[in-house]
Prior knowledge:
Elements (H helix, E strand, L loop, with lengths): L3 E8 L7 H17 L4 E3 L14 H4 L6 H13 L2 E9 L7 E9 L2 E7 L23 E4 L2 E7 L6 H9 L4 E6 L6 H15 L2 E6 L1 E4 L2 E4 L3 E3 L5 E4 L6 E8 L3 H7 L9 H10 L3
Parallel strand pairs: 1-2, 2-3, 7-8, 8-9
Antiparallel strand pairs: 1-14, 3-4, 4-5, 6-7, 9-12, 10-11, 12-13
Helix pairs in contact: 1-3
Amino acid sequence: MEDEFTVALGQISCRIGNKRHNIKKMAQFIEKAHRKKARIIIFPEACITGYASRDLVYELAEPIPGPSVHALEKLTKKFQVYLVSGQPERSEISDFVLYNTATLIGPEGYIGKYRKMHLPTHSVFEEKRYFRLGYHAPVFDTNIGKLGICICYDIFFPEVSRLLRIQGAKMLICISASPAVRRHFFETLTISRAIENTCYLAYVNLVGIEDGLQFWGGSRLVSPNGRVTVQAKYNDEDLVFGGVDYSKLHPIEAFVPTLRDLRPELFESLRSHSTEL
């Protein structure tokens, strides 16, 4: 396993419904990341189709792995890089069961997927109208360590990140389509999730305007001590690079031993009391 490597944060804007255009743009970013010797490049939530696709999502959704994943596999194999991206997924059981999904692809091809667990359906969001909840939080064992993935609103729920961390994830990846009014929340929560889990956290947010929603960008890599080591521009496309060094986890875990001090009996209490809300 590689203990030190470079992460690329591919903050892009997307054209709604135009997969070919979006994947072509991703390919350009992947090639640039390869020239900088990045081992993984991360793109935003729903970057393959655009986020605000509304009813068009039924036409855009694909099985995973499907055509878009296969197109990206060619790039990850060519440039020997890991890649995380987002797209609507169509269930193999029913054409009308859709998920908001993140995929992990590597030099060996498709590795796995994460289905968004928490679907915002308030204010400008209507994800439960289209998507089914995800129920699993897998951790993926790769040559750059164990990786855990979540999507946007999931980061508001610390139990998701905690579950990924106690399964061994050394880096948490959150892909997002956050509008500008939520910027303060995400900038706070990304730091909190890194500190409380003593791990790296890579956050990549959409940028641009879709259907009247302005996405603010601000993608960042946060170190286990809560320090933002690199941050992308606000409101513009950007590609930034940050370093990960897993050896730095050890002194931080000793100084802030949150995993050692976990009280698992509280998890059961959380479950029982949450049913009474």
